Request: fold
Amino acid sequence: VMAGQFASSQSVSSYNDNWMFSFQHSYKFTSGSPTYVPGTALLDSNIEGVSAISDGLGNILFYSDAQSVYDANNNPMPNGNGTINGHISSVNACVITKVPGDCDKYYLFTLQDSAPNRLELRYSVIDMNLNGGLGDVVIGQSNILLYTATDLTEKMIAIQKGVTEDYWIIVRASLADEFYAFEVS
Reply:
């Protein structure tokens, strides 16, 4: 599970306080110890790479299985219900990060098999001002192709760039010593 890593006056760890899993399981880490929270929208046993993002106080904002985006009430976002082109059975199917310079928008990066032995890295924008404050995928800003190659793997991570709001999206290549890094600033 990966989530945005940028904080203002709140602890960086608060943005990662909610972890979602298949079979409707989730855990909340706000108290410092994991607390079981039943009832996510994730039913499928094949879901491998879920990403969630919380606010600075540790309240869940939204989460994704790389095919749908779910709001804090476990409902699919109107423009994110089965419309995201990630693959639920990728190891790191999706990663959520803030849009640098905009505290209400987030990027959802996804990996998708586009053909045998070919993966696509795509992103969508989620705006938390939409859908009555529960957020929605921005129309015209979903599934935007960032990179496609035959040597990408299912492994992806977002890493904050120093103490800035900028970050790197890093995807592992099939060769053990190669990575693709995409700067987002």
